[in-house]
Specification:
The chain has helices at 31-39, 174-179, 190-194, 203-213, 229-235, 242-246, 257-265, 297-305, 317-325, and strands at residues 46-48, 69-72, 74-75, 78-79, 103-106, 114-116, 123-125, 134-136, 147-148, 167-168, 182-189, 199-201, 222-226, 250-252, 270-273, 309-312, 330-334, 345-347, 351-353. The protein is of the alpha+beta class and 354 residues long. The chain folds into two domains: 24-60 and 109-353, Putative cyclase (Glucose Oxidase, domain 1, 3-Layer(bba) Sandwich); 69-106, no CATH class. The strands form six sheets. Strands 1-19-17-11-13-15-16-6-18 form a nine-stranded mixed sheet. It is globular. The two termini are 43 Å apart.
């Protein structure tokens, strides 16, 4: 038994892949699963499953996440954009013909199409069995010990720089990058059946859709949920109409216990959606409840309890429509995150090959 915890959360699979595992159910994406994904390539066409990195646009959708801001690299206090090479770092070499651009980008890693690492969401849970809840993550890794906040810099010039150098010593996004994030993708086309009206999709509705579309999900599949949300957002051209978006697109019902059990029992590797959270986020509870509970129950269930990575704001509409037109639901999915040690999420530019 791991020394990090005496009790695992109810409904969790901590220790399934060993007490020190940091990859969760992506361990189910084996070499055989990669070959299954490759076998789905029939015509060689590719689809980019990423929104442009500067979409949504602004911070209206999420005031805590910053759109990309790009700058030119500096050399001797001047822009290095469209300069030539120099050997002394003092002046350009007139004998060289090269013209070089070099950029710097500042952005939130989970602004646009993104992966959530297993360090993104944990829970307050009594893992020690001492009657007191502590902040822990998948497989019992601890906040403040394995997942470290930034240290405050009161002299920071801008608010975003106030807490520099946070670091996930465990469960960082690099664990997913090292695994490869490539395998067999399976599309569930919620939009085709439900339209783009905001609604929570529970177990019963999901099973009906799978049956009608003859979609089969097997161990280690990377499951994609098409709701049309990202397509609606993209059409807004970086000026998101938040009120309209709040009424757009379906999402999984994180309060449906049958659905949560199915996600674990079917042994999917990860859940990926074109909406902002995979699950449908409900307003803050307006009435007291008899027990504490999460705001994002599917995030808690997947990331914290069962080591299931989530992907959000993927662009799936073109792929979903092509698959439907060709009576298919499976494809090769290649979706590595940035190999940025210690990060709790990452932009992604997934590619589907059919």
């Amino acid at each position: 038994m791991s020394l990090r915890w005496k009790h695992a959360p109810e409904g969790s699979n901590w220790g399934e892949f060993g007490p020190d595992d940091q990859r969760g159910r992506m361990n189910l994406v084996t070499t055989e699963k990669v070959l299954q994904g490759v076998a789905e390539v029939k015509v060689g066409r590719t689809f980019c499953l990423s929104l442009p990195l500067d979409v949504p646009g602004g911070q209206a959708m999420n005031p805590r996440r910053m759109a990309p801001r790009r700058y030119a690299v500096l050399r001797d206090g001047k822009s290095a954009g469209q300069q030539g090479f120099c050997w002394s770092y003092a002046a350009e070499d007139a004998e060289l013909t090269d013209v070089v651009n070099d950029d710097v980008v500042l952005m939130s890693l989970q602004y646009s199409t993104q992966w959530d690492s297993l360090a993104h969401v944990g829970s307050r849970f009594d893992a020690d069995g001492d009657g007191e809840a502590e902040a822990v993550f998948y497989n019992g890794f601890r906040a403040g010990e394995h997942v470290l906040p930034g240290t405050e810099d009161p002299t920071a010039a801008e608010p975003f720089a106030r807490y520099p150098e946070p670091r996930a010593e465990a469960l960082g996004i690099e664990r997913l990058a090292e695994h490869g994030a490539q395998g067999r993708g399976v599309m569930i086309d919620l939009e085709h059946h439900l339209g783009r009206k905001r609604q929570a999709v529970g177990y019963d509705a999901l099973m009906r859709i799978l049956e009608v579309d003859r979609v089969e999900i097997e161990t280690g599949d990377m499951v994609c949920l098409h709701t049309g949300f990202a397509d609606t957002l993209l059409a807004m051209n970086r000026r998101p109409d938040v009120e309209h978006l709040h009424q757009s697109g379906s999402g999984l019902d994180g309060w449906d216990s049958k659905l949560l059990n199915w996600i674990v029992d079917v042994k999917l590797a990860c859940l990926l959606a074109d909406n902002p959270a995979v699950e449908l986020v409900v307003p803050k509870f307006s009435t007291p409840t008899p027990m504490r509970r999460p705001r994002l129950p599917l995030h808690e269930h997947c990331l914290f309890k069962n080591g299931i990575h989530l992907g959000e704001l993927w662009y799936l509409t073109e792929l979903a429509r092509w698959l439907r037109a060709h009576d298919r639901s499976r494809f090769l999915l290649t979706a590595p995150p940035l190999r940025l040690p210690g990060a709790v999420g990452s932009p992604a530019t997934p590619i589907a090959t059919v």
